[in-house]
Every structure is written in structure tokens, then in C-alpha cells.
Amino acid sequence: MKRNMRVGIIGFGNMGATFAVAFQSKQRQVYVYDIDKKKTAGQKGFIISESSRALIEKVEVVVLAIKPQDIKIFLNTIKDAFYKSKPLLITIAAGVSTKFFEKHIKGIRVVRAMPNLAAKVGQSMSFICKGKFAKEEDLAIAKDLLSSVGEVVTISQDYIDKVTSIAGSGPGYIYYFMDCLYKGALSLGFSKGLAKKMVIQTFLGAAALVKEEPLDFKEWVGKVASKGGTTQAALRLWQRNNLPVLVEEGIEAALLKAKKLNLK
């Protein structure tokens, strides 16, 4: 992918702003637009567009980072700009298939992407799939751009909602468990500062070990949970209370919600 490729980002919220910084650091020409001009005011290193239409007409790639409920109106408003400039569209909206975009803009080259919150620190687990009219080179462009914020995997469209229920929502699940451990530490009398530090470092260390050595998660559990030990006592209690089943049911609930959100 050429370094001076013109990339536009529509929507300058958390993810849009994260992409802008990451793409600019890779020597891309980054155009940004948000309907709320306060979000882009004073931004340095980016070309601030006056409208989404003006942005689309200037760039080769459009990254759409707006709310799913706003997409239908957006497409109906600017479809002529896409017909004129024919940029590649990369969408990160949950619940909006490539077919939805193709229905509203005939022949559009679209790649659907599902990054997660860890993109903010360059550690996202992103998944991408291409639409009917996108080419392999379009997929390569999307992969190159998203690699600026972490790992990227290409999958089929059929798996994108499933990905949402694991990698997309996953950080929320982990933060929830971290909060449970944090509250548990507080109940034992630790200070807030030490309790938080202990939980964070425990997760960081565990993740680093798993990444370093290719063992199954179950094997790692065995390395910590010695027979008759403290870890095993906690794990047995959770197993008796069906924690594994609850986790699986939670993932299924997230998947069902993702499917219900899909725009037709």
C-alpha cells in the first residue's frame, strides 16, 4: 500500500480519532470529518474537511466510524459522492452487513471491519471481510490500515457477528472480571491503589505468558492450580456454580443481540 494514500475518516469519536492518529503515524494523508465540529477543532496533523461529501471526493479510502443507526440516512445523503469518486469504503459499524451498503449504493467496494477497544493502545484484535464488489487488493488495503492498531484476521461474512460476541465484546467481559477481583481485594482490606495495581499486573502477566508459550489455556490453569491448593479451591467453587456455562450463555446472548441489531 502506498504511503501517501489519501484516507478519510468520517466520525471522530473514540475509534475514529484512534484510527486518525494511527494512520497518520504511518505517513498516510488523513482527512477527518465529524458532524460535531468541536471534536475536530484544533486537531493537528490531519486535514479537516468541511463536510462528509467534501471528504469523500478527496480520498481513495473512506473509513466510516459513525453510529449504526445513522448509517441509512448517511448513505442516502451522500451516495452520489460515492458514485462520482468511487473510493473504497471500510465500515466498522456493528450490525451493518456489506450487503446493506451494496443495496443502497450499487457497485460499492466495501470491507467490513470489527476492531475492539484495545485499538487505542495498538493492541486490537480486528477482523475483516469483503463485500461482493471488493477486490483482494481492497482487502489488503484494509488489512494494512487496521494493522496500525493491532492484529488483523480475514474471515468470511458469516462469522462477523460471532466475532463481535468474542473479540468485540471481549474487553468488556475482561473488565467485568477485573472489577470483580478488584472488589474482592478491597473486601480483604487492600487499599484501592494496591488492589487496582495487583489486578492489572496479574492480567498483564498472565496474558504475556500465554502469548509467549503456545500452550492451551487449560494447561496454564494446571500450572497455577496445584492439587489441593488455593487456586483449585476457588476454581472448584466456580465450577460448582456453573461459571463455564454462564460464560457460554453470555456469549450466546451477545451473539443473539448482534444478529438482532443487523440492519436490513
Notes on the protein architecture:
The protein has 2 domains: 6-163, Rossmann fold, CATH 3.40.50.720; 170-261, ProC C-terminal domain-like fold. 53% of the residues lie in helices and 14% in strands. The chain is built from 12 helices and 8 strands. It has an 8-stranded mixed sheet, with helices on both faces. 30% of the residues are buried.
Concise structural overview:
This protein has 264 residues and is an alpha/beta fold.
Indicate the structural class: alpha/beta
Order of helices and strands: EHEHEHEHEHEEHEHHHHHH
Rg (CA only): 21 Å
Q: Provide the CATH architecture of the largest domain.
A: 3-Layer(aba) Sandwich
Give the helix/strand layout.
Layout: E1 6-10, H1 14-25, E2 29-33, H2 37-40, E3 47-48, H3 52-56, E4 61-64, H4 71-85, E5 88-91, H5 98-104, E6 110-114, E7 124-130, H6 136-146, E8 150-154, H7 160-168, H8 170-187, H9 192-212, H10 217-224, H11 230-240, H12 243-261
Parallel strand pairs: 1-2, 1-4, 2-3, 4-5, 5-6, 7-8
Antiparallel strand pairs: 6-7
Helix pairs in contact: 7-12, 8-9
